[in-house]
Amino acid sequence: MLKKHKDLLFNPKYGKFGLIGMPYFLLFPWLDVIISLLFLFALIKVVAIGGLKELAIFYFFMCLIQGLLMSFSIYIDREDRKLAVISGIESLRYNLLISFVTVEAGINYIRGISNFLE
Fold first, then answer.
1. ∠ CA 101-102-104 to the nearest 5 degrees?
2. pTM of the entire structure?
3. Is there a domain that residue 117 lies in?
């Protein structure tokens, strides 16, 4: 999308979409990859120095907060309440998948490999 509409990027003629929206689509996926890598290195460091108790406490509270947010969203959208059960593990799997796809797409773009969405 960015390659096709690069004329919109940082272009004040297109208002907030050109100045905020398009740069967001350019920068945020890579920021997410960087944060995911930093989290992975921090996780490895915590495991290496024996801070598993602190990691478990952090993960518990992260899952609790995410579960509450997910439950609130499910309540608002009137969705199946069983979805709240998977909220603790869903974010780990989904974020890793999105980071992997972002890096793979970036590498393919740099190498000049066209994807099927163009």
1. 60
2. 0.59
3. no
